[in-house]
Amino acid sequence: MDKTVVKFFDSVGSFFTGSDVIPWCDSDIVAASDSGACGREVAEAEKGSSDKLKSESIMRLSWALVHSKRPEDVQRGIAMLEVSLAGSNTPLLERERVYLLAVGYFRNAEYSRSRQIVDRCLEIAPDWKQALTLKKAIEDKITKDGVIGIGIAATAVGLVAGGIAAAISARKK
């Protein structure tokens, strides 16, 4: 089969399956209690480790939370990142936190907010491939939602027009 045709069918398939390029995180890693790897690490860091170690372990937990499949985990990760963003003392750390915040909003299907935040991330690092990939994924989701919305509206208009035509046809008989 021609490569163009294969590419077309792959793109149509990914459009309908909703696949994206942002990784997911397993629930055993995400678990914020003592049973989860990241949760354990944060709990241990809270017991007297340096501020740098605490910050790093909270950053890893935030990463795991915003990449979780559970919406409540994603929401918790967003909250943690918003609080920790004020403490970003280097551009690299700010870039990472802003990016993760954009991922969290993307996971929550808040695409316009995610796009605003990823744009902020690209102001810090314009050529960062992860942020550029996330921005494309956001734009693809917005486009897909728009196409689906138009399809639903067109179907509704078609049903209404069909109903009116049937009523007029029935009235003429």
Automatic annotation (TrEMBL):
Gene Ontology biological process: autophagy of mitochondrion; mitochondrial fission; peroxisome fission
Location of the protein in the cell: Mitochondrion outer membrane; Peroxisome membrane
Name recorded for this polypeptide: Mitochondrial fission 1 protein
Species classification: Eukaryota, Viridiplantae, Streptophyta, Embryophyta, Tracheophyta
InterPro entries tied to this protein: Fis1, Fis1_cytosol, Fis1_TPR_C, Fis1_TPR_N, TPR-like_helical_dom_sf
CDD domains attached to this UniProt entry: Fis1
Pfam family, one: Fis1_TPR_N
Protein keywords: Membrane, Mitochondrion, Mitochondrion outer membrane, Peroxisome biogenesis, Transmembrane, Transmembrane helix
Residues passing through the membrane, by range: 146-168
Topology class, membrane: Single-pass membrane protein
Gene Ontology CC, one term: mitochondrial outer membrane
Recorded family membership: Belongs to the FIS1 family.
Organism: Salvia splendens (Scarlet sage)
